[in-house]
Amino acid sequence: MDWDLEKDDGQKKAKKGKKKALTAVVAVLITILVGGAIGGGIGVTTWYLNKEDSSSTSTGYSFAQNGYSGNSVQALLSVPQADSNIADICGKMEGSVVTVVTQIMMQNLFQATQTAEGLGSGIIFEEDADHVYIVTNAHVIEDANTVYIYYNDTQSVPAYVRGADTSADLAVLYMKKSEIPEDIRAGIKVATLGDSDAIRVGELAIAIGSPEGKAFGNTVTVGCISGTQREITVDGNSLKVIQTDAAINPGNSGGALVNANAEVIGINTAKINDTEVEGMGFAIPMAVAKPIMEELLDKGSVERPALGISEYALIPEAIADAYHVPVGIMVYEVSRGSAAADAGIRQGDIITEIDGRDITSLETVTEILSEHEVGDVVEVTLIRNRNTHEPIKVMLTLQNQEETTGGTEDFWGRSEREDDSGNRSPFTIE
């Protein structure tokens, strides 16, 4: 069986890069987005059909990777009398928002090892007798070999990863109190977490974080709540978010979105990446983040049901019509020993239904999985024969996403991309 579709492996590592349209009579844009919600540590391929007229543009979201050209003063003026208490609000947040610095070991073209540095923000949300706990975005610490909390040029504190949930883009770090200098420990303050379900459009919103480098730690930008219950898709993950026009800059990821009561109502995570758009930033609501934070704190991981597909492609209706293939998800790789492998799903299969529901988008799959728990059995309908399109139905027992990281199998069952430990987690956990 061969479907006339090709995967562009050359773009696989450019997961946060800007999409480029290929223009022709009919051009297909294929972008690999690593880290979706179906398989657990999986890759996602999204197919786009571009007609000859390529004048239209699509809006993309980025993890606060680009500068903001808006005017914070304009946002401030849109909130009547807000300037009278902003300083007090920021004073109450002092010591609760920190600068998260990561170091990543990389090889250059000459195979020499170099250290690259990343920057983000974090919120202190819990402490016990021995530790201080910080929440940040999972993408802030992705691929990090070491993590530390920066305070000034002479003082920084090692941080360790308690757990991360890439699907929700959240991670919990901790500092050991025994490693925190006394003067820094005295200034640490646990943030007050607010009720994001109670916010209204137009209310004051303050973003606090560390944009554009260590020198700008605890930078404050002011705006309002522009929207609630928004849904965006970043790197294959569907996120429910708060929209704000408070400036979200590079390094703000993981920082706090604060209300007029100095309560954290969201965790800054993304902004619209478009030169024609200003002042559209997004934060994960605390109502969504808090239970995940608690589970990461308690268990070090979040249990999510997964099919066990390592890499796949969404085939929308336009592509299906053009290539005479079914609408659904094409399977590129199946995790070795996974639920999908046990059910007999192979590379090249196209999944058209799960539990009788048509698969027309990645969001549909995410929604179906969210309705189930690990151990539930689902019926998967797939097409394997290109000529007859005869459906095949298999029963699949959903497994924990964390269990799908142990290598993959190609069409002939050969294992790929597995290290000695069988663990492909990018995080260093003490």
UniProtKB/TrEMBL annotation:
The chain crosses the membrane at residues 21-49. Pfam families: PDZ_2, Trypsin_2. InterPro entries: Chloro_Bact_Ser_Proteases, PDZ, PDZ_sf, Peptidase_S1_PA, Peptidase_S1_PA_chymotrypsin, Peptidase_S1C. One of its GO terms (molecular function) is serine-type endopeptidase activity. Residues 411-422 have a biased composition (Basic and acidic residues). One of its GO terms (biological process) is proteolysis. The keyword Transmembrane helix applies. Residues 400-430 are annotated as: Disordered. PROSITE patterns: PDZ. PANTHER family: PEPTIDASE S12 (PTHR43343), PROTEASE DO-LIKE 8, CHLOROPLASTIC (PTHR43343:SF3). Belongs to the peptidase S1C family. This is Trypsin-like peptidase domain-containing protein. It comes from Bianquea renquensis. The lineage of its organism: Bacteria, Bacillati, Bacillota, Clostridia, Eubacteriales.
